[in-house]
Amino acid sequence: MSINDLFGTNVFSDAVMKERLPKETYKSLKRTIEMGEPLEKTTAEVIANAMKDWAIEKGATHYTHWFQPMTGKTAEKHDSFISLTPDGRATMEFSGKELIQGEPDASSFPNGGLRATFEARGYTAWDPTSPAFLKEDSAGVTLCIPTAFYSYTGEALDKKTPLLRSMESISKQAMRVLKLFGETSSKKVITTVGAEQEYFLVDKKYYQARKDLIFTGRTLFGAMPPKGQELDDHYFGSIKERIANFMRELDVELWKLGVSAKTKHNEVAPAQFEVAPIFSTTNIATDHNQLMMEIIQKVAMRHDLVCLLHEKPFAGVNGSGKHNNWSLATDDGINLLNPGKTPEENARFLLFLSIIIAAVDEYAPLLRLSAANPGNDHRLGANEAPPAIISVFLGDKLTSIINQIEAGDLNIEKQVELLEVGVSTLPKLPKDSTDRNRTSPFAFTGNRFEFRMCPSSASIAGPNIVLNTIVSEYLRRVADELEKADDFNESLKKVMVRLIKDHKKIIFDGDGYSDDWIKEAARRGLPNLSSTVEAYTYFDKPEAVELFERHGVFTKGEIVSRKEIVFEEYAKIINIEGLTMSQMVKKQIIPACINYMTDVAESISKIKGVCPSVDVSVQEELVNKISKLLFDVRVKVADLNKAIEEAKGISNIESMAFAYREKVFPAMAELRKPCDELEKIVSEEAWPYPTYDELLFRV
Ligand code: ADP
Ligand code: MG
C-alpha cells in the first residue's frame, strides 16, 4: 500500500469533514477551528452524527474522550455507541452533547488539591482544533476525541487547557506587533512545533527479568560492558533486520493516525533510536507526540521488544531527550523566524529574535522547570545533554548582527546584505559531529529555535506553555511601547537596542559542556538549577504567578496545585526506585553472591581434599573480595533504607521531595557502586539478572 493510501486513514481529517459534512456545517466548524468562534449546538449534532457514521464504517464500536491529565500521560474512558430502543433493539447513537462534553470519573487523576476544595467532578470538552482519530487494538476500534479536562469551576486539570490558552495569548500579542509593521492579511499567529523523540529498545525477555526496568523504567544497577558507545558505530549505522521491521510497522501505524513520522535512525547510544514528525501547530504536535510515545511502545511489544522512554535507562551511555523545535507563523504561512528578503521583513525578524532572547533570559528558570522531571536529573548537566544552565545559541553571523544592533549601528540596508550572507550560511550541522551547537539548550537553527532540554518521557505541553507565555509577555511589553510611539522606526531601534543590551548575557555560542562555562555563567548571573525539585520552587514565585495570570494561562490555584503534584510525584518515583534497589539487593544480589561464594568455597575444599598442595589463592582472593564488597553492600543498603524512612516521615510535601533528592538519591548512587563491582567479579551464570551486555547489544 502506498503512503498516500495509508496516511491519515484513521483520522477524521479536514478532507473527510469536507466530504461528509453539509457545506454550512463544515464552514461553521472551520470558523470555530480557525477563529475560535463558539460552536452551535445544532452544528455539533450534525458533526457528531457524521463522525459516528464514519467511525462505524471503519469498525468502531466505542468512543472515548481522550485527554491529558497532569500525570503527562493520556487517559480515556470508553463508552459504546450502543443505545437501546423501546422495543428492545440496539442502535448506534452519538449525540452532539456526547461529542462536546464528557464527565469521566476523575477521582483517580492527580489534582493537587484543586478538586477537593471545590467539587469532585471533572469534565472533558472537545478540542475541535485537534482532529478526532481511530485507535485500533485488541479491544477493537475506538473513536478518540481529543479533549481538554477541567473542574466544575473551570480550573484546568490537564496539560491541554493551559497549552491552548498560551497559544491564544501569543497569537493576540504577536498580532499586535505584526500590525505595527503594517501586516494586515494575517488573522492570527500560531506556534509551530516538531518534536524529535528519542527512545531505547530492549529485548522483552531481558526486560522481564529485571525488576528495576519493570518498576522504574531504568536500570538501577549495571556494570558497563567492555564496549559502550565510544566507537560511535551505532550512530546512523545500518539498522538491524529486527529493528527495521519494527520501524516499518511503526511508520505505518503512525501514518494511519496522520502522524507524519519522517526520520528514523539510530542514535548515539547502542539500542537507542529517534523518530521525528513534520512540524505542525503546537497542540496537534503535542497530541501527536503523546500518540507517538504510545504507539512506539505498542508496536515494540509486537516484536518482542520493549521501548524505554525513560531519560536515563542506562548509566554510562547517553540518555534520551526530546528536541522541541519551535517557531511562530502567521495563519497565511509566514514563518516569523525566517530572516526576510526586504528591510521590513528583516526588521520584523530581528525584533522577534530580540524578543525571544529577552524572554528566555528573564524567564530562564521557568524554561528550565518546564524541562524538569526526575529522569532528566540524570542528564542535564551530566555532559551528554545540554547543561542545566539555560543559554541561547545564535551562531557567528547572527551574533555579529546582534552586536551591531546593540552598538546602535542599525543600518537596515546593511542588515539585508549581512543576513543574506549570514543566515543562509548558518551551519546546518550534521548530527554526528561533536559540534558546539549540540551543547546548547536553546539553539537557533535557521528558521526556528530548538529547545533541547525536554525529557524524553514527558509531554511537550509544559515546555511549549512556558515558551508561548514568556514570549507573549515580551511581545506585549514591546507592543505597549511601540503602539504609543510617534516615530515607529526610531522607537523600534531603541527597543531593540535595549532588549539586546539588557539580555545578551543569555547568548552563548561556546561549549556548554565545559567547566569554564559553568563559571562564566555564574559570573553572568545565569541560574544553574541542577535538579527538578530546585527548578520547581520557581513556579509559584510572585513574578511567575503574575506572568501566567496576566496571560490567562494558569491561575494561582492551578500553579500551586501543579507544584504540589510535581513534588509528590518526585517523592513517589524516588521512593519506588529506592525500594526497588533495596529489594533487588536483598532478594537477588546478596543471595546470588552468597551462592556463588559458597560454590567457590566448596571448590576450594574439594580441590584441597584431592590435592592439598594445589594453589587456591585465586579462589580465596575471590571469596575475600566478594565478602568485603558484600559487607559494604550491607552498610549501604541500611543507609538507603534509613534515608527512605526519614524522607517518608516528612509531612510537608516540598520538604519531603527535597529529602528524597538530597538524601535518598545519593544513597542510591552509593549502594550502586559495590553492587556493580560485584557484578564484574561474579560469574555470568551466577548473576541474578541480565546485564548491560544483553540489554544494549542483543536487540
Ligand atoms: P535535526 O536532527 O537536525 O534537529 P530533524 O530533521 O531530526 O533535524 O528534526 C527537525 C524537526 O524540526 C522536525 O520535526 C521538523 O519538522 C521541525 N521543524 C522544521 N521547521 C520547523 C518550524 N518552522 N517550526 C517548528 N518545527 C520545525
Ligand atoms: Mg534536533
TrEMBL record:
InterPro entries: Gln-synt_C, Gln_synt_N, Gln_synth/guanido_kin_cat_dom, Gln_synth_cat_dom, Gln_synth_gly_rich_site, GS_Type-3, GSIII_N. Residues 159-589 form the GS catalytic domain. One of its GO terms (biological process) is glutamine biosynthetic process. One of its GO terms (molecular function) is glutamine synthetase activity. SUPFAM superfamilies: Glutamine synthetase/guanido kinase. Residues 61-154 form the GS beta-grasp domain. Transmembrane segments: none annotated. It comes from the Bacteria. Signal peptide: none annotated. Belongs to the glutamine synthetase family. Pfam families: Gln-synt_C, Gln-synt_C-ter, GSIII_N. This is Glutamine synthetase III.
